[in-house]
Amino acid sequence: MKLTIERAALLRALGHVQSAVERRNTIPILSNVLLSAANDRLTFSATDLDLEIIDEALAQVDQPGQITAPAHTLYEIVRKLPEGADVSLSFTGEDPRLTVAAGRSRFNLPVLPAGDFPVMSADGFSGSMSVDANDLIRLIDKTRFAISAEETRYYLNGLYLHTVIIDGQSRLRAVATDGSRLALADMPAPEGAVGMPGVIVPRKTINEARRLLEDAGESVDVQISPQKIRLELNGAALTSKVIDGNFPEYGRVIPKDNNRTVMVDAKVFAQAVDRVATISAEKSRSVRMAIESGRVVLTVRNMEAGQAVEELEIDYDGDPFELSFNARYLMDITDQISGGTMELRFGGPNDPALVLDPGDADVQYILMPLRV
Hints:
By secondary structure, the protein is α+β, with helices and mostly antiparallel strands. The chain has helices at residues 7-18, 71-80, 133-143, 203-213, 266-276, 327-334; strands at 2-6, 32-38, 41-47, 51-58, 60-63, 65-70, 86-92, 95-102, 105-110, 128-132, 158-166, 169-177, 181-188, 199-202, 219-224, 228-233, 236-241, 260-265, 286-292, 295-302, 306-313, 321-326, 341-346, 353-357, 360-367. The protein folds into three domains: 2-116, DNA Polymerase III, subunit A, domain 2 (DNA Polymerase III, Chain A, domain 2), CATH 3.10.150.10; 128-252, DNA Polymerase III, subunit A, domain 2 (DNA Polymerase III, Chain A, domain 2); 254-367, DNA Polymerase III, subunit A, domain 2 (DNA Polymerase III, Chain A, domain 2, Roll). Helix content is 17%, strand content 44%.
């Protein structure tokens, strides 16, 4: 294999695929990226056996061929090369290493046979749908913060992507929850979405897809089966296994009778929560909210660090009540509010709070209060 490629094109494609490679691997080949040169293109493949990312770049191919090389090392080399450089990649039987050369720089990297590199099948998908890239970015950004990191409940370690019917209209919905909070975002279902199985897409896959979407074109082709999901966008492709499990019936926890409505400036509220949480105990990060007509008093008490109190103006004219929330969770939700105002709907002292965004009617957030 012998080729020349622009540094910018090489860096972009390597950046897309190398993050799929785990830093520590017990299987050596999984630390490598597969390089395939043919027909004026260099194709890159990386996998961790659950997720595979493929991308390509234009190159001047003098001799076609395939080889694998250490993904992270190759990426770091290319990243540190001068901008505008032409990079030469070559592998011959005379030297059992991949030679990377640019200007006066020259590197020789160990390789493993391309034939040993695992390939994830792209078969078995029942259909496909074309989704606007910005719509998919919105679904991910509005919900992924609530994905659980608790490994024992593995079925919560991803984003539940599925279709629902609302008022006779089909909607594509993303839901994430960790048991203490829930994030939900809708969009009109694109053509082909109806009838596709609902799947739980792993957190790593969601994060890698989000990175790829930064360089996507206008639309993304999404294919789903009960076992896998595949995204094709702007020359790149991501294929991933989905989580084998049943997502909870989240509709049961969405409050229907929360009749105490509070309107507050989201940014001002988040800044106040952040300030008083400075002295909170790290474990619970509990913030007490005392709500009464026209104002909310935020209080944090810590036996070791002291006490913090801050008062805010709100739009509320009902009976006073109090409850506590995790400060980090409150700020995570306020970060998602697209308009200036946030709407909070409360029920009883132990009932989950419903948070709505007046600037985006297709999102909902549920937050469980703390029992202090």
